[in-house]
Amino acid sequence: MAKIRKNPFDGSLGKETDPHMDGKMDMSGLPGLDLNELMPLVAKLGNREGMMLFSMIAELVEAGVTPERYAAFYNAYQKLRPMFVHDAADGKTDAFDEDSDDMTESEFKDKTLLLKIQMKGVTKPPMWREVEVPADMTFLNLHHVIQRVMGFYDGHLWQFNERAYDEWVQIGIQSTGNFDSGLEYVTDDAAVTPLYDYLDEVGEKLEYVYDFGDDWIFTVSVKKILDRKCEYPVCTAFKGDLNPIEDTGGPWAYMTMRSDPADWKTLKKKEKAEIAEQAGFESADDYYAMLKDNLFNMDSVNESLKALNG
Fold first, then answer.
1. Angle at Cα 19 formed by Cα 17 and Cα 21, nearest 5°?
2. How far apart are CA 154 and CA 161, in angstroms?
3. Which residues on adjacent β-strands are paired with residue 194?
4. Alpha-carbon distance 136 to 134, whole Å?
5. CA 247, 249, 252 angle in degrees (round to 5)?
6. How far apart are CA 47 and CA 280, in angstroms?
7. Is 72 helix (H, G, I), strand (E, B) or coil?
8. Residues ≥6 apart with Cβ < 8 Å to 243
9. What structural domains does the chain harbor?
10. Cα–Cα nearest to 6, from 233, 185, 182
11. Residues 44-53 pLDDT 10s
């Protein structure tokens, strides 16, 4: 069963006005914002649906929608709702039936996701890796997959979001407060949240953020859902011979460095020395050796992926 998120309405939503809005925007008495009415519905929703509902209402308030217009919208929704929700007498389930998540689990436990992991901010050409992973793999293991296919060393904070740094969805490891590498706030524990909680359809996307200083950001999108379960993650295709290199400045630095390995033999000695110096290396040979160490090798990567327990 897909994990049920902690009720986002458990608090003062609807009882306080936005400090940036006029006091008349208090919407606590409107239909659809009554907590007694909302809580049973939200309790049945999965991760994505619950936060979509919460986000929609929050955006209406922040956008300055008047109570009158909100009430009109809500009343229209109530009239249209029968078109989307089947009556139990027909033997069909509500669109928000809590058993629907069970179907998702059984459907995906023997599936494989083909994911495309593409670096944001890098184009012409783009830089990406495609991997096959078990659909019920956790996001913690997907983090380890990305670390391996990108050549990182897992030395910085990371998280998955719908959009980078968006706190509506923040999948990661919670900090214990003992100077560990966890996050202060998560919506989903990456160690137990399966991929199909969010990546359950072709075209679904999340963004993976690594190193909150250099801001390596990757779009993780579902390319295919395969009717088999792979034994372990496998990298099947790639574009971009040079891996991103930690602590070099992020995607902008990658754009500068990625052509160096191919161009190295055509550069003059003085040009090589200048490039190496700008990159913080004492010699051109040291810089070039570092580049060669960070070239993508699919066979080596797939050997390391076998060690991951899907």
1. 70
2. 18
3. 138
4. 5
5. 145
6. 45
7. helix
8. 150, 151, 152, 294, 295, 296
9. 23-103 (no CATH), 109-241+295-305 (3.10.290.30)
10. 185
11. 555 566 666 6
Helices (H) and strands (E) in the chain, counts: 10, 8
- The count of other CB atoms within 10 Å of the CB of residue 12 is 9
Place of tokens 């190193």: 211
**Residue type (1 letter), 22:** D
Identity at 184, one-letter amino acid code: E
Cut 0.85: pTM above it:
no
CA dist., res. 290 & res. 147, Å (int): 18
| ∠ Cα 205 209 212 (to 5°) | 160
Helices 35-43 & 47-62 angle (0-180, nearest 10) = 150
User: Which residues touch 37 (CB under 8 Å, ≥6 apart)?
Assistant: 31
206-to-3, 73, 197, 261, 291 alpha-carbon distances in Å: 17, 30, 11, 31, 29
Question: Tokens 């998955």, residue?
Answer: 160
* Radius of gyration, alpha carbons of the chain: 24
- Write down the residue that tokens 């072709």 correspond to: 202
* Per-residue pLDDT tens digits for 273-288: 998 888 888 899 998 9
